[in-house]
């Protein structure tokens, strides 16, 4: 059975269920747990749910220590950019301890942060940073694009014994979706095929999945059938599903809200070029943000970002190319 | 807890101090006797033994410890097998961390040594997190967080002490102030040191007691850290203990690309600051022979007993070196293990 | 206090007040896009501090920067055009509310990351020291910033190097949606820097005279090369953390309480009593502020949106 929930509520539902199920799950961060009538506080108390000052280094470091000592913290960081001041903890500490200790410790924590909020939040609050975390061995990265996946990936993240960066897209916050009741787990490393088609493969993450689907509808009117793939996790990455699709379609367009060289699209493109070269009938195309800081002014903000029209354009271009 | 240690305890303290000293000197000798065996950057705790042992004498089984990359002394004192430690420092299969960590990243979870960080101050919030876990568990565990004076300028120090105080976490912050951050003198980088103040004054900004102690006297350290541990265990929150030590080796061995033989240079006081008299004074105040002399003078042990202990320790460490050298390198494929739990 | 100073302070505060009220309205009408953090209630600090500074003194601010920008001399119409994302905005529409810059008037930056401006401000003070000038840097931040690691890192160096920076904390008791007690055991930000031992003071930030006097003393010290200094101004943020904040986390101030606390009304009463202005002056100053804001809105509304190519061009010099 299922019920309808907005994306953001689906995430909370997962955290709550996991905290009910497992007393070692903790939840803390800024601007939460400050009043007695907050849901998480009434349910779990001030031991397990706490407010912190503006201290990301300490928040993530404390989560790391608590995780090593047997608990499973979820840290509410709000925005991916707020993790930047604490990048040492995110990249150089938590993901590396298990390895450096020869397997003696594990660091089961979840860093929950929103991203991509292109709604006039301007240059420092709007970035798409998933690719920064994707290549760090020991770290996993989840990027849900639907309410159901938001719930399922959070539950899996909490149960995973490794540090997980859980990036939820701010533009999807109020997107409603059918969410399975009760326990719902979405495995890491399994992409979702959102639409099947035989002419071109389009891969998007987070909010760009919706752009890809919208582009696919437009293309269908021209008789072009696109297959849209949503990786759901960047690390581990389900490359096989993408390669299978490219084998079928021979054409690949990757959509990403990040600028080119810090995009997940560039990383996947490299993997497909290496492992799926024989399937390709045309060069891979990337539709990413321009190489700029995100500007504030609304028309400029829209200009630098990928959109449905740019995806349609990229598909047409890649289908026009005649292979040698 | 804060009573004067009894005879057995005092002898135990002396023995651990000697084990640390002998181990560190053996590590240092390895650079000369077996060049190429130790790679990378190694940091020794010779000179800090009294502070390390005195602090650890104040905790009990179940308590937990985290430190910096200058980490050998803590697991030694906590009872970690020195053979496994040396093998780890030599990068061998039978090392404490299977050769994956090295000198800066020793871990012995079973003995409560949860780990280190190679990044200055990064381990301070980790210790607070372990203390947070202890607080929830409610079994009375306390955590010791060891770091150097250099760490107190890092944002992580500020953020963590603030939160630890606010949440009354059962943690004791032990700052081993050796007057240097790598090869920068504290007064060159710290506003309090520049003003001639003890660094413990920083505690004022966090509503916690700040105490300065002579880190060369293990009994005093034991008393001071013991009081802080009691406070933490009683749920009264953290303390900042500034323990004054002098490291007898340079910050670490030289940093050089592969092919250049590594060695330990002279202490920065001599090599960089032209202050050999500072170093000589430190040598004269060396806590290990000082403590030995005191125990013998006080009749706690005889010179013969002291010598016997020294002999045992030398043999233990020699065996560790031999074990390390004999341990094979890890299988190549083992590099892929332990990335994920 | 001289009458002309009193006038200037009142003018500045009214301009900020009426401007911020206008911005709130424009935000509701979707003419202003994105996140806006208004400084209604905190005008006295911006006015008293910035009115003492020269154009070549540097001011750094945080996400709640409109008042500081206006008080430092940024033209109203160009600030509003920036908030409306237009080409004639201070930053040509690229920065927005949290990233106002007006180099000509010494507003060197605002940042959206809490406390991120403090190390940058210390760098600016270092530059002044190296140049050998008596330029001063002022950095505005809220009480929430004092717990951030980078805050203390910057303060240590400012003290170690005795840099000419005045740290001005607008302590309104809240860091976003949480009260100070959730952040630290130390009630006063001036106590948080106590271990560094430099001059600091806490004043009623809604008493523009108190801020003016104390900041004046601090400025003199800083110009003479004796820094850093910290001025904590206890104040009240009348509206939410940002426009759209439902403020479930605190009780609303009553109208009576606000009458007493409002820095503008307080100073107006004081100025009238002291004879620095008369009733007619007071009314005229407020009217002029309203007119200036209306003119700013006409200018900003008429300004075109920037061209898309601009967005691509600005990344590197």
User: Can you count the beta strands of chain A?
Assistant: 14
Low-pLDDT residue intervals, each spanning 5 or more residues of chain A? none
Report the order of strands and helices of chain C: HHEHHEHEHEEEHEHEHHHH
How much of the residues of chain C is beta strand, in percent?
5-15%
Question: What is the CATH architecture assignment of the largest domain in chain A?
Answer: 3-Layer(aba) Sandwich
CA distance, first residue to last residue of chain C: 46 Å
| Main structural class of chain C | alpha/beta
Compute the average pLDDT of chain A: 94
Biggest sheet layout of chain C: 6 strands, parallel
| Unreliable spans of chain C | none
What is the makeup of the main sheet of chain A? 7 strands, mixed
Mean pLDDT of chain C, to the nearest integer, reads: 94
| CATH fold naming of chain C | Rossmann fold
Number of helical segments with 4 or more residues of chain A? 12
Helix content of chain A: 25-40%
The name of the CATH architecture of chain C is 3-Layer(aba) Sandwich
CATH class label of chain C: Alpha Beta
Helices and strands in order, then pairings?
The complex is a heterotrimer of chains A (324), B (341) and C (317).
Chain A: E1 2-6, H1 7-21, E2 25-29, H2 39-48, E3 49-51, H3 56-68, E4 72-79, H4 87-93, H5 97-100, E5 110-115, H6 130-134, E6 140-142, H7 147-159, E7 164-169, E8 176-180, E9 192-195, E10 200-204, H8 207-221, E11 226-230, E12 233-235, H9 239-249, E13 252-259, H10 264-275, E14 285-289, H11 298-304, H12 308-320
Parallel strand pairs in A: 2-3, 2-4, 4-5, 5-7, 6-7, 10-11, 10-13, 13-14
Antiparallel strand pairs in A: 1-8, 6-12, 9-11
Chain B: H1 7-33, H2 49-56, E1 64-68, H3 73-78, H4 82-89, E2 113-117, H5 123-137, E3 143-148, H6 155-166, E4 171-177, E5 180-181, E6 184-185, H7 186-189, H8 191-194, E7 210-214, H9 218-233, E8 239-244, H10 268-271, H11 276-284, H12 287-297, H13 303-326
Parallel strand pairs in B: 1-2, 1-3, 3-4, 4-8, 7-8
Antiparallel strand pairs in B: 5-6
Helix pairs in contact in B: 1-2, 1-12, 1-13, 2-9, 4-13
Chain C: H1 3-28, H2 43-50, E1 58-61, H3 66-72, H4 76-83, E2 107-110, H5 117-131, E3 137-142, H6 149-160, E4 165-171, E5 174-175, E6 178-179, H7 189-192, E7 200-204, H8 208-223, E8 229-234, H9 255-261, H10 263-274, H11 279-302, H12 308-313
Parallel strand pairs in C: 1-2, 1-3, 3-4, 4-8, 7-8
Antiparallel strand pairs in C: 5-6
Helix pairs in contact in C: 1-2, 1-3, 1-10, 1-11, 2-3, 2-8, 4-11, 5-6
């Amino acid at each position: 059975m299922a019920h309808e929930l907005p994306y953001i509520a689906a995430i909370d539902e997962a955290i709550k269920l996991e905290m009910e199920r497992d007393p070692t799950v903790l939840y803390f961060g800024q601007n939460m747990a400050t009043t007695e009538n907050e849901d998480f506080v009434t349910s779990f108390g001030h031991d397990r749910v706490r407010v912190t000052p503006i201290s990301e280094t300490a928040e993530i470091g404390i989560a790391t220590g608590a995780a090593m000592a047997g608990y499973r913290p979820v840290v509410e960081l709000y925005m991916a950019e707020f993790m930047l001041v604490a990048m040492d903890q995110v990249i150089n500490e938590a993901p590396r301890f298990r390895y450096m200790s020869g397997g003696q410790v594990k660091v089961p924590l979840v860093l929950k942060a929103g991203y991509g909020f292109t709604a006039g939040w301007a240059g420092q609050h709007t970035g798409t940073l998933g690719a920064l975390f994707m290549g760090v061995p020991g770290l996993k990265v989840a990027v849900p694009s639907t309410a159901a996946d938001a719930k399922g990936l959070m539950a899996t993240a909490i149960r995973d014994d490794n540090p997980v960066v859980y990036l939820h897209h701010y533009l999807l916050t109020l997107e409603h979706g059918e969410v399975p009741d009760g326990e719902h787990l979405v495995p890491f490393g399994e992409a979702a095929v959102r639409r099947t088609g035989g002419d071109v493969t389009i891969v998007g993450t987070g909010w760009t999945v919706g752009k890809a689907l919208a582009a696919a509808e437009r293309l269908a009117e021209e008789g072009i059938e696109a297959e849209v793939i949503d990786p759901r996790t960047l690390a581990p990455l389900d490359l096989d599903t993408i390669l299978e699709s490219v084998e079928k379609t021979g054409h690949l367009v990757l959509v990403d809200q990040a600028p080119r060289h810090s995009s997940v699209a560039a990383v996947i493109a490299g993997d497909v070029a290496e492992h799926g070269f024989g399937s390709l009938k045309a060069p891979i195309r990337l539709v990413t943000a321009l190489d700029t800081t995100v500007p504030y002014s609304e028309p400029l903000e829209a200009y630098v970002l990928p959109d449905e029209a740019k995806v349609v354009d990229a598909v047409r271009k890649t289908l026009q190319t005649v292979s040698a | 807890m804060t009573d004067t240690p009894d005879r057995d305890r005092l002898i135990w303290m002396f023995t651990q101090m000697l084990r640390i000293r002998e181990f560190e000197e053996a590590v240092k000798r390895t650079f000369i006797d077996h060049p190429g065996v130790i790679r990378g950057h190694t940091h020794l705790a010779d000179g800090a033994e009294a502070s390390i042992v005195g602090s650890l004498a104040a905790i009990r089984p179940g308590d937990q410890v985290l430190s910096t990359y200058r980490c050998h002394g803590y697991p030694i004192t906590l009872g970690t097998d020195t053979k496994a430690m040396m093998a780890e420092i030599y990068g061998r299969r039978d090392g404490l961390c299977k050769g994956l960590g090295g000198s800066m990243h020793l871990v012995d979870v079973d003995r409560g040594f949860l780990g280190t960080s190679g990044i200055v101050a990064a381990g301070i919030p980790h210790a607070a997190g372990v203390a947070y876990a202890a607080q929830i568990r409610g079994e009375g565990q306390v955590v010791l967080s060891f770091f150097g004076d250099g760490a107190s300028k890092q944002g992580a120090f500020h953020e963590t002490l603030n939160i630890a105080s606010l949440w009354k976490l059962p943690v004791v912050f032990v700052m081993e102030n050796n007057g240097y951050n790598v090869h920068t003198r504290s007064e060159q980088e710290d506003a309090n040191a520049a003003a001639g103040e003890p660094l413990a004054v920083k505690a004022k900004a966090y509503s916690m007691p700040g105490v300065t102690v002579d880190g060369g006297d293990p009994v005093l350290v034991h008393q001071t850290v013991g009081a802080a541990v009691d406070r933490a265990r009683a749920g009264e929150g953290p303390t900042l203990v500034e323990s004054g030590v002098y490291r007898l080796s340079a910050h670490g061995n030289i940093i050089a690309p592969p092919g250049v033989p590594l060695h330990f240079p002279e202490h920065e006081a001599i090599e960089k600051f032209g202050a050999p008299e500072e170093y000589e004074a430190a040598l004269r105040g060396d806590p290990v022979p000082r403590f030995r002399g005191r125990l013998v003078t006080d009749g706690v042990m005889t010179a013969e007993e002291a010598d016997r202990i020294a002999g045992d320790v030398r043999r233990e460490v020699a065996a560790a070196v031999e074990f390390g050298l004999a341990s094979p390198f890890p299988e190549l494929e083992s590099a892929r293990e332990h990335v994920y739990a | 206090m001289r009458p002309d100073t009193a006038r200037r302070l009142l003018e500045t505060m009214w301009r900020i007040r009426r401007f911020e009220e206008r911005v709130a309205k424009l935000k509701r009408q979707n003419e202003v896009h994105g996140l806006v953090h208004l400084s209604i209630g905190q005008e006295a600090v911006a006015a008293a501090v910035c009115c003492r500074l020269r154009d070549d003194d540097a001011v750094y601010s945080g996400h709640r920067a409109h008042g500081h920008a206006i008080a430092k001399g940024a033209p109203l119409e160009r600030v509003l055009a920036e908030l409306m994302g237009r080409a004639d905005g201070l930053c040509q529409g690229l920065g927005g509310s949290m990233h106002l810059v007006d180099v000509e008037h010494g507003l060197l930056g605002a940042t959206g990351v809490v406390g991120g401006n403090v190390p940058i401000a210390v760098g600016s003070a270092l530059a002044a020291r190296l140049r050998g000038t008596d330029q001063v840097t002022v950095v505005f931040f809220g009480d929430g910033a004092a717990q951030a690691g980078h805050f203390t890192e910057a303060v240590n160096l400012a003290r170690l190097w005795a840099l000419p920076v005045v740290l001005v904390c607008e302590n309104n008791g809240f860091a976003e949606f949480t009260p100070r007690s959730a952040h630290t055991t130390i009630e006063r930000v001036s106590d948080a820097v106590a271990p560094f031992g430099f001059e600091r003071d806490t004043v009623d930030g809604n008493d523009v005279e108190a801020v003016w006097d104390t900041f004046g003393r601090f400025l003199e010290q800083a110009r003479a090369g004796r820094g850093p200094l910290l001025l904590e101004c206890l104040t009240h943020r009348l509206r939410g953390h940002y426009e759209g904040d439902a403020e479930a986390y605190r009780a609303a101030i009553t109208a009576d309480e606000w009458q007493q606390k409002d820095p503008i009304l307080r100073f107006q009463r004081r100025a009238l009593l002291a004879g620095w202005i008369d009733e007619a002056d007071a009314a005229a100053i407020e009217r002029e502020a309203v007119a200036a804001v209306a003119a700013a809105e006409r200018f900003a509304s008429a300004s075109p949106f920037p061209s898309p190519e601009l967005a691509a061009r600005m990344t590197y010099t």
